[in-house]
Amino acid sequence: MPLELSNQVHIITGASRGIGLATAKLVAQAGGLPVMIARSPEQIGTEAEALQASGHKAEAYPLDITDPDACKAMVRHVRDTHGRVDGLVNNAGTNMVANLLMCKESTWQPMFDVNVFAVIRLTQLCLKPMVRAKYGRIVNVSSVAAKLGAPYNTLYSASKSAVDGFTRSLAIEVAKLGITVNAVAPSQVNTKLMRDGMAVRGKMGGLDADAVIEGIAEGNPMGRILEPEEVAGTILHLLSPGSGSITGQSWNVCGGVALGL
User: Fold this and answer.
1) In CA terms, which of 44, 63, 227, 249 is 20 to 30 Å from 24?
2) Residue of higher predicted confidence among 225 and 122
């Protein structure tokens, strides 16, 4: 079945760059309307305008996903304006590379607010119109870090493990309602988030970020890190009507790093 999303509306968080932006572009190219969520009005507006200028549908909606009232207003706007919410991509996330012994709760709580609690919040809000429509696609961006341990990645790994557990349990909860819930688990992807994290990791080991990234690429069976578009392609498939029998899964998009997991 072709990846056709005509007349569908998909909310995508973290859509101003990286995996989120790549996903928004693919949704638009497939005929859907990406509602592009990010904190920066300027950046998200520029990207939405670029899609519109190329003949595609797109809507920018600046939003802090850690603000419960603002999230409610966003979903209400999408529902009232477009009459539907077909898909939700919980892509926005943040990283933390740190020694657990040296961390204070005030430093890691904000990461969980974005990586875990915002995912739960937006999913709950979007489920309501999906249940009424008896159709929906929810895709959470997790990480192979939830499956593979790594030093100084303890808290980030924990947040993504929470996403995977949430994905599996909710998938069963809504399986008979025409709604699928899945996750994608990338390895290292060429994004600002990854490069910033590798700069911190390099500093801890007396290396620069490029050296750390080169070492990671050498450890990947494909000999490289991934591009955002490669992850977005998998997300697009999970958003499509043809993916209706796939639910509760966490698909590795990792170049073979997490074989068998």
Assistant:
1) 249
2) 122
